[in-house]
Write a structure and sequence with these properties.
Elements (H helix, E strand, L loop, with lengths): L2 H16 L18 E7 L5 E6 L5 E5 L3 H5 L9 E5 L9 E6 L7 E5 L2 E5 L4 E4 L13 E4 L14 E2 L5 E5 L17 E5 L7 E5 L7 E3 L6 E5 L11 E7 L11 E2 L3 E2 L17 E5 L3 E6 L13 E5 L15 E8 L2 E10 L12 E6 L5 E5 L4 E7 L6
C-alpha cells in the first residue's frame, strides 16, 4: 500500500472513530469472555475516550486524542476534551459525565496527584489544581512543562506517576522509521520529570511509540507496551511488551525491531545483540496501548499481578491477511519472565473484518473490576467476575 493510500485509510479511521459510531449502542453480545466474566457499559456520551485515571475520591478522569489536524479531517470541532466521570450512587455505573476542557491539542494522557489533575497535550503538560472542588468550573491550568516536540505523529502521550514520585511521559518517534536522536534525544523515548516539570530526563530510549505503562506492584519496576514500525509486511514486526528495571536501557528503535529484526535502513548501524530485547512479543500491528498490572481481588487468583493490555487494533494490514488486535489480552509473569500471553476479551473485530470498537486503556477499579475505554464507540466498559457456582 502506498504512503498516500495509508494516509487516506488512517484519515478515514480517525474520522470513523468519532463521527456517528459514538451514538450507537455497543453490541456487547459479540464480546467473548472466559466463564464467570461479564461486560457492560460503564459510561457513555464521551468523544474519543482514551487514557483513564481514578482519584482517591472515585472521580474517573478521561483524556481524548482528537487534535486540530483530525478536526480538519472530519472530527467534531468541539474535540480536545478531558472528562470527569462520576458514579454518585455507587452502583458501578456512571451517573454523570462532565466536560472539563475543550480545544486542547490531543489531550490523551491524564494523571492525578495531591488533588491535581495533570493533562498531557502533544507538546506540553498542564496541571489543574484542586480539580474535584471545581468540576463545574475548572481553574486555569498551570503549565508544568511546555518543552516537548510539537510533532503530531506519535506525539500523543500517556502519563503517570511512578513509585519514585516522578511524572513519566513518552515522546514518540515523529515518523514510521527515522533516526532523530541527534535533533532531540527525547525522540523515541520515555522521559521522567519532577511533578513541577523540572529535572526532565530520558529514562529509556529506542522506543518507537509507547502509549501505556505501569510499575510492578511488588518490585516497582517499569513495564510498557510499544508499537512496531509499519511497511515491513503484514506479519512483522510484532508489537512488544517491555521491561525497564533501571534507567538507560535502549530497546532498539530504529535499528532493531522486536529484539531480532534488523531494520532494512538502519540495521547496519547497531546490531540487535547490542540492544535490549523485549520481554515478550505481541501480535503484529495489534497497536498495544494501555496496560496495567491487576491489583484487584475480584478476578481469579491467577490474574493477580499479571498484565492486562488493551490492543487497539491494526489499520494497515492487507485485506487478505485480516486485522489483528481489537481485544484485551493478559500477559502472565513468573518473576520477570513472561510465560504466557492470551486473550481475555475479544469480539470488537467483526466477522466482516471491520472493528466496530477499539479498546484503548484499561484501569483496575477499587472493587477489582476492569474498566476498558473504547474511542471508536465513545464508551467505557466494565468487565467484572462472579464465581460461576455463585450465580
Amino acid at each position: 500500500m502506498s504512503t498516500r493510500a495509508r494516509c487516506s485509510v488512517l484519515a478515514a479511521i480517525l474520522a470513523g472513530s468519532v463521527v456517528g459510531l459514538a451514538a450507537q449502542q455497543p453490541p456487547l453480545e459479540r464480546i467473548n469472555l472466559p466463564e464467570g466474566f461479564s461486560i457492560r457499559v460503564y459510561a457513555t456520551g464521551l468523544t474519543n475516550p482514551r487514557s483513564m485515571v481514578l482519584s482517591a475520591n472515585g472521580t474517573l478522569f478521561v483524556g481524548s486524542r482528537i487534535s486540530p489536524r483530525e478536526i480538519a479531517q472530519g472530527a467534531p470541532s468541539d474535540a480536545g476534551q478531558v472528562y470527569a466521570v462520576l458514579d454518585r450512587d455507587g452502583d458501578q455505573r456512571a451517573d454523570e459525565v462532565i466536560t472539563l476542557t475543550q480545544g486542547l491539542n490531543a489531550p490523551n494522557g491524564v494523571a492525578f496527584r495531591d488533588g491535581a489533575l495533570y493533562v498531557a497535550e502533544i507538546n506540553r503538560i498542564l496541571r489543574y489544581d484542586d480539580i474535584e472542588a471545581h468540576l463545574d468550573d475548572p481553574p486555569d491550568p498551570v503549565v508544568v512543562n511546555d518543552s516537548f516536540p510539537t510533532d503530531w505523529m506519535h506525539g500523543w502521550k500517556f502519563i503517570n506517576f511512578g513509585p519514585d514520585g516522578k511524572l513519566y511521559a513518552p515522546v514518540g518517534a515523529p515518523c514510521n522509521i527515522c533516526n532523530r536522536e541527534a535533533d532531540d534525544p527525547r525522540y523515541a523515548s520515555i522521559t521522567r520529570m519532577n511533578p513541577d516539570g523540572s529535572g526532565l530526563e530520558v529514562f529509556a530510549s529506542g522506543i518507537r511509540n509507547s502509549v501505556g505503562y505501569d510499575w510492578h506492584p511488588e518490585t516497582g519496576e517499569l513495564w510498557f507496551t510499544s508499537n512496531g514500525r509499519d511497511s515491513l509486511g503484514d506479519d512483522r514486526p510484532p508489537d512488544t511488551l517491555n521491561h525497564a528495571p533501571r534507567p538507560g536501557l535502549h530497546f532498539g528503535f530504529p535499528f532493531c525491531h522486536a529484539g531480532n529484526i534488523p531494520d532494512p535502513e538502519f540495521g547496519a548501524t547497531r546490531a540487535c545483540a547490542d540492544l535490549d530485547p523485549p520481554a515478550h512479543t505481541l501480535g503484529p500491528h495489534v497497536a498495544a496501548l494501555g496496560m496495567r498490572f491487576y491489583t484487584g481481588q475480584m478476578f481469579p487468583a491467577r490474574y493477580r499481578h499479571q498484565i492486562f493490555i488493551a490492543e487497539h487494533g491494526s489499520w494497515n494490514r492487507s485485506v487478505e491477511a485480516g486485522h489483528t488486535g481489537y481485544r484485551v489480552t493478559v500477559a502472565y509473569l513468573d518473576g520477570n519472565r513472561v510465560v504466557d500471553y492470551e486473550v481475555l476479551a475479544d469480539g470488537w473485530l467483526g466477522a466482516d473484518n471491520i472493528g466496530w470498537g477499539r479498546p484503548v486503556d484499561v484501569l483496575v477499579m477499587p472493587d477489582g473490576a476492569l474498566l476498558v475505554s473504547d474511542d471508536r464507540m465513545g464508551v467505557i466498559y466494565r468487565i467484572s467476575y462472579t464465581e460461576p457456582s455463585a450465580r
